[in-house]
C-alpha cells in the first residue's frame, strides 16, 4: 500500500522536479507569488511532519556516544529522553550501598562540575570506581559504564597513554616534622572555611610548597585559587611526590607501622598527603577555575588516598615507652659501691668543667646500675654541657620514669627542652620540678621556669603584633611544639575500625562465606594486633583504616582481608597477585565483576554483586581433575576481550556515532524511517507517515513458562602462555602473594532446559559486556508499520543452540532473545560469551520494546543483540 504508485504520479513528480531545477531565483523577491506560496506550504507541511514524528518519539531513549577527545583516548556515553530537554534520563544504576564501609568502592568526585566535562571526568583512573559504572543487575553495566569500557579499551589499544604535563622542580621549603603532623591534625579536626581568610590560605600553601616562583608580597593581591591548583598539580607530578598507587601499591604501605624510617622519608610521606589534601580542598571549591591539563591518574590516586587518610586516621602522640623494670637488675653491694665511686668521680669532673670525663664516669656507673635515677640525671647535665641536648633530654626522661618524684631530674629535663627550643614542654617540666621540690626548690628551678614563661610570652607577642606573615609563622611555631616528637612515639588510630570490622563481617555474610565464624573471631582482634605493632599485611591495614583506593583496588583489598581473616585457608592460600583472579572454595566460587564468569553468572538467581565481586556462585569442576581440587585456589580465566565494543559489531568500518546536544539529531539516526526515493511521491509519503493509524505499538515477547537450570561450572585447563609474575608489581614480589599459577582456565557452563532432555554446554570464549537499559518515559512508544518487521521476530533460548553469528546478525534488525523463562537470561549471556557478542539487557522496569530494540541497533549501542528478560 505504501509503495503503490501510478504513472501519473511519477510524471507529475518528475516534471515538478525538472521545473524546480531550471529555476534559480536570486532572491525571494524574484519568486512568482504562486511559487512562493507553494514553497511556504511545503515548508509548513514539512515542519508539521517533523513535529508529528518528534511527538511520536517523545520520551524515547536516545543514546549518545562521544568519541575520543582530540589527542586523548576519552570516550563517554549517556542516555537521554528524546524531546525532554537536555536532562539525562533517570538511569536506575546500582542501589545504595548497604554499609558505610562499602562506599570505599566508589570514588569521590573532587571537582564539582557545573557544566560540561571537567578535567577530572576526562582523566582515567579505574572504570569500576566510577559511581555510574555498575548496572542495576549483577554482571551488567550502565550506558555510562559502557563509555568507560570503551575508554579503557582505547587505552589498551594505544598502550600506556603518554601525557605531557608540567612538573615543578622548585625545592620544597623546610618544614619540621612536627609542623606537618600539626597541619594534618588541623585539617582533620577543624580545617576552617576555605576562602574566609584568603591571605592565610595562601600562606599555608607557601609554607608547604614554596611561592612556586613568585615572591609573595603583602602589598599584592595574591594569586587566584585556580593558579594555585595548577601549581599543586605540578608539585604532585614530581616523581618524588606522587606515590604509584595506581600501579598496585597499597596506601598503608606508604605510612603504616612504627615509622622506622629516616626523618626525610617521614617528611616526604606526610608532605605528599598534605599537598594532595590541600589540592582536594581547592578543587572542591575552585576546581573549574583551573584550566591546565596537568591532572594525571597519579594525582587522582594521591587525592583519593589523602582525602581518606585525613578523614579516617588520627595521629596520636604518646610518651616513649621505658621498661623501668628491666633497668632494675639486682646488683651486689660491691657493684653498688663501685658505681657510687664512679658517680663521685663524675661529680668532681663536673665541678672542674671536665664534661667529657664526667660523661664517661656517669656512663660507667649506669652500666653497673642502669636503674639509678641519679646517675641518669647527672649524665643529662653532662650532655647539656656538651650541647648534646637530645641525649640530655633522653637521660632526664628515663630518670623521671624511674623516679617520678625526683625534682632535680624534672628540672634537667626542662633545661634540655629549653636548649631544644621547646619552651612549652620546658615550662611543664620546670613547673613539675618546683611543685615536687616544695620548700627545697632551687634558684635554678625558679630561673628555668621564669625563662620558659618569658620565651612563651615573647612568642605570643609576635603573634599579636607582627605583620601577617610574622603572625602566621609565629603562631605555627608555638603550635608545632605540641607535636614535637622528642621522646614521643607516633601511633595511627583508625577512626573507622569498628565500622570496617562490621563491614567485613557483613560482606562475608552477603557473600555466604563458608568460614564466617573464623572471620568473626579473627577480625575482632585485628585492630588490637595492629596497635600493638604486630606486622600485618598492608591490605589488612588499608581495610581497617578505611584508606583503600576504590574500584579494583578495593575489590582486591576486601577479598585479601577476608582470606587473611580465615586462618583455615590463609595458611595454604597466598594472596592474589591480580585484580581479576577468581576464588574457588570447596563450597562456593567467587568471581570478579569484569571477568567472563562474573558477567555471565551475574544472571544466576541468588547471587549478589558487591564490592567488585559476584557471588556466591556454585563450586567448580576441573577438567581434567586437578590435584587437591577441593582446596582453595585462585583462578585465572582465559577469555578474549571483544575489541569491537560498539557499532562495528553490526556495521564494520562505520565511524563511531556522534549525536549532538539538539534532540533533532536523533531523527537523522532513526532506523525505523526510510526517506522517500526519487520516484516516490513525497506528499503521499508524508501523508502516510503522519497518519496516526499507521503507527502501532509492537508486540513484546511473552512470558515463557520454561525453566533453565545451571548444572555445573566446568573449568578446562589451558597452559598459560606468559610469565604470570608480569601481573605482580615489583614491590609485592616475595611478600606472600600468589605468583606461581601455571594454568589458565577456560570456563564452560552446562545447562538443563525443561523443554529439552540433552544438556546444553556453552564455552565462555570471550568476555562480553552486558548493558542494562534505563526506563524510557511515556512508553510504550509506537513504531511505523514500515518498520514493523524489525520488531516482530525474536528467538527462544532453545533455538540458540542451533544458531550462531554471523548468520543471525542483520544490520537493520537486532537479534532479540526471549529470555523471560526462569534462568534463561543466564543461558543467553553464556551464548553471547561463546560467540563474542555484547548485548543489551532489558529487565523488568526497563524501557519499552521499541526503545530496547533501537538501543541494541545502529542508532543505539550497535551491539545487534537484545536479551529480553
Shape: elongated
SS summary, helix count: 28
- Strand order, largest beta sheet: 7-8-6-5-10
Low-confidence stretches: 1-26, 216-221, 646-669, 725-735
Q: Write down the oligomeric state.
A: single chain
Separation of termini?
35 Å
Helicity level = 40-55%
Tally the beta strands.
22
The whole-number mean of residue pLDDT values reads 83
What kind of sheet is the major sheet? Answer: 5 strands, antiparallel
Structural class: alpha/beta
Gyration radius, rounded = 37 Å
Strand content: 5-15%
How would you sum up this structure, described in words?
The protein is α/β, with parallel strands linked by helices. 41% of the residues lie in helices and 12% in strands. Among the domains are: 165-320 and 487-572, no CATH class; 324-486, Tetratricopeptide repeat domain (Serine Threonine Protein Phosphatase 5, Tetratricopeptide repeat, Alpha Horseshoe), CATH 1.25.40. Strand 21, helix 28 and strand 22 form a beta-alpha-beta unit. Helix 14 packs antiparallel against helix 15 (407-419), helix 15 (407-419) runs antiparallel to helix 16 and helix 15 runs parallel beside helix 17 (443-465). The chain is elongated and about 120 Å long. The model is unreliable at 1-26, 216-221, 646-669 and 725-735 (pLDDT under 50). InterPro entries: TPR-like_helical_dom_sf, TPR_rpt. Keywords: TPR repeat.
Amino acid at each position: 500500500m505504501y509503495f503503490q504508485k501510478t504513472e501519473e504520479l511519477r510524471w507529475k513528480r518528475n516534471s515538478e522536479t525538472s521545473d524546480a531545477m531550471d529555476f534559480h531565483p536570486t532572491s525571494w523577491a524574484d519568486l512568482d507569488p504562486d511559487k512562493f506560496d507553494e514553497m511556504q506550504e511545503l515548508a509548513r507541511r514539512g515542519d508539521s511532519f517533523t513535529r508529528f514524528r518528534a511527538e511520536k518519539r517523545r520520551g524515547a531513549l536516545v543514546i549518545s556516544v562521544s568519541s575520543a577527545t582530540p589527542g586523548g583516548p576519552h570516550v563517554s556515553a549517556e542516555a537521554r529522553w528524546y524531546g525532554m530537554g537536555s536532562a539525562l534520563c533517570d538511569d536506575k544504576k546500582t542501589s545504595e550501598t548497604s554499609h558505610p564501609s562499602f562506599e570505599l568502592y566508589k570514588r569521590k568526585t573532587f571537582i564539582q562540575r557545573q557544566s560540561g566535562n571537567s578535567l577530572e571526568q576526562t582523566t582515567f583512573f579505574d572504570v569500576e570506581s566510577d559511581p555510574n559504572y555498575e548496572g542495576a543487575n549483577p554482571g551488567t553495566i550502565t550506558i555510562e559504564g559502557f563509555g568507560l569500557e570503551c575508554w579503557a579499551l582505547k587505552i589498551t589499544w594505544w598502550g600506556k597513554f603518554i601525557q605531557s604535563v608540567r612538573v615543578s622542580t622548585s625545592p620544597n621549603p623546610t618544614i619540621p616534622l612536627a609542623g606537618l603532623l600539626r597541619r594534618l591534625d588541623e585539617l582533620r579536626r577543624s580545617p576552617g572555611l576555605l576562602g574566609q581568610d584568603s591571605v592565610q590560605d595562601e600562606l599555608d600553601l607557601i609554607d608547604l610548597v614554596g611561592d612556586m616562583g613568585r615572591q609573595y608580597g603583602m602589598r599584592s593581591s595574591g594569586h587566584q585559587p585556580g593558579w594555585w591548583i595548577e601549581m599543586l598539580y605540578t608539585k604532585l607530578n614530581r616523581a618524588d611526590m606522587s606515590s604509584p598507587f595506581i600501579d598496585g601499591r597499597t596506601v598503608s604501605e606508604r605510612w603504616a607501622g612504627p615509622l622506622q624510617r629516616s626523618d626525610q622519608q617521614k617528611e616526604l610521606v606526610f608532605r605528599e598527603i598534605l599537598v594532595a589534601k590541600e589540592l582536594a580542598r581547592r578543587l572542591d571549591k575552585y576546581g573549574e577555575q583551573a584550566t591546565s591539563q596537568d591532572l594525571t591518574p597519579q594525582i587522582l590516586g594521591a587525592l583519593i588516598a589523602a582525602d581518606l587518610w585525613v578523614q579516617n586516621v588520627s595521629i596520636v602522640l604518646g610518651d616513649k615507652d621505658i621498661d623501668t623494670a628491666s633497668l632494675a637488675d639486682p646488683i651486689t653491694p660491691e657493684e653498688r659501691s663501685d658505681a657510687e665511686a664512679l658517680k663521685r668521680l663524675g661529680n668532681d669532673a663536673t665541678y672542674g668543667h671536665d664534661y667529657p670525663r664526667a660523661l664517661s664516669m656517669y656512663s660507667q656507673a649506669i652500666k653497673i646500675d642502669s636503674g639509678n635515677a641519679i646517675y641518669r640525671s647527672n649524665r643529662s647535665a653532662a650532655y647539656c654541657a656538651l650541647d648534646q641536648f637530645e641525649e640530655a633530654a633522653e637521660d632526664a626522661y628515663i630518670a623521671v620514669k624511674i623516679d617520678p618524684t625526683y625534682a632535680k631530674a624534672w628540672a634537667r629535663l626542662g633545661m634540655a627542652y629549653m636548649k631544644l627550643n621547646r619552651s612549652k614542654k620546658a615550662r611543664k617540666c620546670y613547673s613539675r620540678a618546683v611543685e615536687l621540690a616544695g620548700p627545697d626548690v632551687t634558684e635554678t628551678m625558679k630561673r628555668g621556669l621564669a625563662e620558659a614563661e618569658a620565651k612563651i610570652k615573647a612568642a605570643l607577642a609576635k603573634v599579636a603584633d607582627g605583620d601577617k606573615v610574622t603572625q602566621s609563622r609565629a603562631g605555627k611555631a608555638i603550635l608545632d611544639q605540641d607535636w614535637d616528637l622528642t621522646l614521643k612515639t607516633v601511633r595511627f588510630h583508625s577512626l573507622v575500625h569498628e565500622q570496617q570490622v562490621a563491614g567485613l563481617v557483613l560482606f562475608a555474610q552477603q557473600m555466604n562465606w563458608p568460614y564466617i565464624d573464623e572471620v568473626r573471631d579473627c577480625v575482632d582482634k585485628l585492630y588490637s594486633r595492629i596497635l600493638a605493632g604486630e606486622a600485618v599485611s598492608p591490605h589488612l591495614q588499608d581495610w581497617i583504616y578505611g584508606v583503600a583506593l576504590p574500584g579494583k583496588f578495593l575489590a582486591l583489598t576486601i577479598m585479601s582481608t577476608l582470606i587473611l581473616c580465615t586462618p583455615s585457608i590463609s595458611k595454604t592460600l597466598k594472596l592474589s597477585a591480580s585484580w581479576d583472579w577468581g576464588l574457588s572454595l570447596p563450597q562456593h566460587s567467587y568471581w570478579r565483576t569484569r571477568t567472563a564468569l562474573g558477567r555471565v553468572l551475574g544472571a544466576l538467581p541468588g547471587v549478589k554483586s558487591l564490592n567488585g565481586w559476584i557471588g556466591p556462585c556454585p563450586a567448580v569442576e576441573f577438567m581434567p581433575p586437578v590435584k587437591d581440587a577441593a582446596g582453595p585456589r585462585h583462578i585465572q580465566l582465559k577469555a578474549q576481550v571483544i575489541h569491537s565494543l560498539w557499532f562495528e559489531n553490526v556495521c564494520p568500518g562505520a565511524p563511531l556515532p556522534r549525536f549532538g546536544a539538539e534532540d533533532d539529531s536523533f531523527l537523522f539516526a532513526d532506523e525505523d524511517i526510510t526517506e522517500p526515493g526519487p520516484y516516490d511521491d513525497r506528499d503521499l509519503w508524508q501523508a502516510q507517515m503522519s497518519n496516526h493509524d499507521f503507527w502501532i505499538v509492537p508486540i513484546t515477547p511473552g512470558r515463557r513458562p520454561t525453566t533453565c537450570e545451571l548444572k555445573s561450572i566446568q573449568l578446562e585447563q589451558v597452559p598459560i602462555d606468559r610469565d604470570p609474575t608480569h601481573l605482580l608489581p615489583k614491590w609485592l614480589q616475595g611478600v606472600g602473594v600468589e605468583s606461581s599459577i601455571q594454568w589458565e582456565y577456560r570456563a564452560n557452563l552446562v545447562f538443563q532446559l525443561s523443554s529439552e532432555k540433552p544438556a546444553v554446554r556453552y564455552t565462555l570464549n570471550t568476555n562480553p559486556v552486558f548493558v542494562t537499559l534505563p526506563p524510557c518515559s511515556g512508553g510504550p512508544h509506537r513504531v511505523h508499520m514500515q518498520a514493523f518487521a524489525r520488531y516482530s521476530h525474536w528467538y527462544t533460548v532453545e533455538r540458540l543452540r542451533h544458531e550462531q553469528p554471523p548468520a543471525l546478525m542483520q544490520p537493520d534488525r537486532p537479534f532479540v532473545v526471549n529470555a523471560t523463562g526462569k534462568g534463561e537470561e543466564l543461558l543467553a549471556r553464556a551464548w553471547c560469551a561463546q560467540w563474542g557478542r555484547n548485548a543489551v539487557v532489558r529487565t523488568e522496569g526497563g524501557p519499552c520494546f521499541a526503545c530496547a530494540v533501537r538501543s541494541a541497533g545502529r542508532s543505539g549501542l550497535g551491539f545487534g543483540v537484545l536479551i529480553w528478560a
